[in-house]
């Protein structure tokens, strides 16, 4: 069984069992191969050819549009994990003191019931100051307003409930 020739059109000598070169003609003279002469002071342990060891990729950066070498995390930022020294970094935004006081008074209103409306009103004043000065604490002022008015509403319901209960008790006691 024969195989088709390879795509180049020439048969592969290894697959056909034929030698790759023609046999030597015994009528032709054989020329001896020249033997390389070693220079004087030849050291077999030293290479005869000096190679330059250069990096072919020296100066090449990452491919544009990529983050760098794949599989490696980016290098940490300088001072990573440590707070900046005093005087460096962004200035911290100051919190409005009235917003803090308003939130505290609104939360105390859970137990005392009288400070909740005061905290809500102070929360409104703190919101106006925050808009004018650009200070921080807007969330605390909003929380003071919400908690203060909810507790004030609950306090009003409790007072109305007591008044109705007292009115019913007086109405029932006078008829007997």
TrEMBL record:
Biased composition (Pro residues): 20-37, 72-88
Superkingdom classification of source: Bacteria
Entry keyword annotation includes GTP-binding: no
Compositional bias of kind Low complexity: 56-71
Annotated DUF4190 domain residues: 98-157
Keyword terms: Membrane, Transmembrane, Transmembrane helix
Name used for this protein in its record: DUF4190 domain-containing protein
Organism for this UniProt entry: Micromonospora qiuiae
């Amino acid at each position: 069984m024969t195989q088709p020739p390879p795509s180049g059109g020439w048969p592969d000598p290894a697959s056909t069992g034929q030698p790759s070169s023609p046999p030597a003609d015994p009528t032709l003279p054989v020329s001896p191969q020249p033997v390389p002469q070693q220079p004087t002071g030849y050291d077999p342990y030293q290479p005869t050819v000096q190679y330059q060891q250069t990096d072919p990729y020296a100066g090449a950066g990452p491919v544009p549009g990529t983050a760098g070498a794949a599989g490696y995390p980016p290098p940490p930022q300088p001072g990573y994990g440590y707070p900046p020294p005093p005087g460096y970094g962004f200035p911290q935004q100051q919190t409005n003191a009235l917003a803090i006081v308003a939130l505290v008074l609104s939360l105390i209103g859970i137990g005392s019931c009288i400070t909740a409306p005061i905290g809500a009103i102070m929360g409104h004043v703190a919101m106006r100051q925050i808009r004018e000065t650009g200070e921080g604490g807007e969330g605390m002022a909003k929380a003071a307003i919400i908690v203060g008015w909810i507790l004030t509403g609950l306090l009003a319901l409790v007072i109305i409930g007591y008044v109705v209960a007292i009115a019913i008790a007086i109405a029932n006691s006078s008829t007997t």
